[in-house]
Amino acid sequence: MSLILLIEQVLNGLQLGVMLFLMAAGLTLVFGVMGLINLAHGSLYMVGAFACAAVAAATGSFWLGLAASLAAAAGAGALVEITVIRRLYRRDHLDQVLATFALILIFSESVRWLFGSFPLYLDTPPLLAGAVTLPGGIEYPLYRLAIIVAGLVVATGLFLLIGRTRLGVRIRAGESDREMIAALGVDIDRLYTAVFALGAALAGFAGAMVGAIQSVQVGMGEPVLILAFVVIVIGGVGSIKGALIGAILVGVTDTLGRFLLPIAFGAVMEPSAATAIGASLASMLIYILMALVLVFRPTGLFGAGA
Amino acid sequence: MKFNAKFAAALSALALAASAAAAEQVKVGMITTLSGGGAGLGIDVRDGFLLALKQAGASDVEMIIEDDQRKPDVAVQLSDKMIQSDKVDIMTGIIWSNLAMAVAPGAVKQGKFYLSPNAGPSALAGKGCDKNYFNVAWQNDNLHEAAGAYANSAGYEKSFILAPNYPAGKDALTGYKRFFEGDYAGEVYTKLGQTDYAAEIAQIRASGADSVFFFLPGGMGIAFMKQYAQSGVDIPLIGPAFSFDQGILQAVGDAALGVKNTSQWSKDIDNETNKAFVASFQEEYGRLPSLYASQGFDTANLMLSALKVAQPSDADAFRAALETADFASTRGDFKFGPNHHPIQDIYVREVIKEGDVFTNKIVGVALEDHGDAYAAECKM
């Protein structure tokens, strides 16, 4: 195993982490501010990917598709918030889980009805195609570098939005006491719709970016959603900073685990068994990480009261 | 003249009587995947099956079609309902091996016929075979074995092999290894449902392999192919047809061009049945047929050919008729081995672009008249 390969794998982990952050940020905002568990967050990711693929196919431009994915996911998010989610804030989490699970089924079958059962085609924009050579002779796909950069830009933007703007102050205030900020004259309904739409747009953005290197198909959001939940549990519910650190931790752990564990087992047993055991353990690794974090910090790394 | 008229009358009476016998209604229960991520496969099997019935004008076949949602518990419930309350005679349709294992053994135990249009788990080909279970597609290992045979003939000496960490993934690598004679630069099991292959591709780049064999069905394969193409790694890929099927090739796009894959069917197999099938499927549904559509079509035609000879109520005669496989298959040569699994040619195809459409072209035969490795264990 060479150093170049190891660095490349760390970059891969970083890229996966940044992508998970885009998913987890929206989820943790909605959970932190509104106290709502939204299982349908993965469906918004799927909506983003499908909107991007459909518009890119119609116009020939990936960038128009990307813009459409933001609009479609934010629109779908706002619509869902106004028609369904709004009724659930005061209900307990079980009701929320049930209702948002129903939304997953509705979204999946609607998308299938609209676009059919076969996966859609979405390729990377020509501008970002191919691989580049980084210092040290590391060959790395340009598009994955772009995902890392885009994710870090979005993360910075989110920190500024939450920490430095009036909307951010209101979001943080709504997190601690919704009655009080309503009494201060903030339209809490509209604030919540905006937060929900923002979270949805982030998920849609992630879906569109990832759709170009994975498959755009019905049900693509659910596996990512599980990882996003792991991220926010590790990072601490409601914390954007926690989501970023947690996402990168999960991304790097998962990638390096898949790469290193079979090699490690290979040192002590015969190769075929080592790959099978290593692979099984690697797929458990992030859950083990989550359990360890929870043992030492029950509310997550940056959770309230930690 | 008079004699002729009498003769004609007698003949037509005979024909009437014969058609009255043939008009005995046969109930077919089809459980397949029509919703969720894997729906494309089930829809193609269903459409191929129904096309064959339509072309035969089979008004005596009553279809009951249900969606298993790719869930074994749902499939079992549906099969109980079909057997107990709908009283079907023949069952078919299942795509996934784990669902087939949940349904097929129970169905044949209750005296039904099961004709598998896709799933071919080794357990049902060897010790667990049954006289009423027929597989019209392949035994699971077959296409992977053919990929191994092709890798030998292409002169590859060091393969990197890759599959998801679940039973069919392990069978795939076992199948490849059964025929490939070279060394291995690496062997990796991925998570089932994994969508990011950056870590594996980096290993392939560093491994020094001269070929990569991978089995990653559905969306996993699309993700892998696209990421592989972008990575700049140019070691040739080999895979079974599942990752290069008509239903997903468009989603993979340019990344698949030139890749060699193994299949028992291709739209350019040169026989009359296949040509007519491809044309009529395209006309009926407005898309090119897939491997799965051809399997559904062949399954229905096998069933219809047997129904011409006997009814399922006469189980021994119907089974004997199925065993002769006296139908025009889209694959050309087709017959059943002693364990009711196909003996057929498996081709090497290359992904090409015809106009705007990505599709496959046959470039060679990987294995001729190929059966499976489990037939000897089958005692019926």
From TrEMBL, chain A:
**Membrane spanning segments where?**
16-37, 44-64, 70-89, 101-122, 142-162, 191-213, 225-252, 273-296
Q: Which membrane topology term applies here?
A: Multi-pass membrane protein
Q: Which domain of life is it from?
A: Bacteria
Q: Which CDD domains match?
A: TM_PBP1_LivH_like
Q: Sorted alphabetically, which keywords does the UniProt record give?
A: Amino-acid transport, Cell membrane, Membrane, Transmembrane, Transmembrane helix, Transport
Cross-referenced Pfam families: BPD_transp_2 (PF02653)
Keyword Cell membrane tagged: yes
Gene Ontology molecular function terms on file:
transmembrane transporter activity
Q: Which residues form the signal peptide?
A: none
**Location, primary (coarse class):** membrane
Q: Which InterPro entries match?
A: ABC_transp_permease, BCAA_transport_permease
Q: Which GO terms describe its biological process?
A: amino acid transport
Record's keyword annotation contains Transport = yes
Q: Where is this chain's protein located in or outside the cell?
A: Cell membrane
Q: Which GO terms describe its cellular component?
A: plasma membrane
The family this protein is said to belong to: Belongs to the binding-protein-dependent transport system permease family. LivHM subfamily.
Q: Would you tell me the protein name for this molecule? A: Branched-chain amino acid ABC transporter permease
Automatic annotation (TrEMBL), chain B:
Naturally occurring in which organism (per UniProt): Pikeienuella piscinae
Q: Does the keyword Oxidoreductase apply?
A: no
Protein's recorded name = ABC transporter substrate-binding protein
Residues making up the signal peptide according to the UniProt record: 1-22
Q: Which InterPro entries is this protein grouped with?
A: BCAA_transport, Leu-bd, Peripla_BP_I
The alphabetical list of record keywords is: Amino-acid transport, Signal, Transport
Q: Does the keyword Transport apply?
A: yes
Q: Name one Pfam family in it.
A: Peripla_BP_6
Task: Give the GO terms filed under biological process for this record.
Answer: amino acid transport
Q: Which family does it belong to?
A: Belongs to the leucine-binding protein family.
Which SUPFAM superfamilies does the annotation name? Periplasmic binding protein-like I
Using the record's annotation, list all stretches that form the Leucine-binding protein domain. Answer: 25-355
Checking Gene3D superfamilies in the record gives: 3.40.50.2300
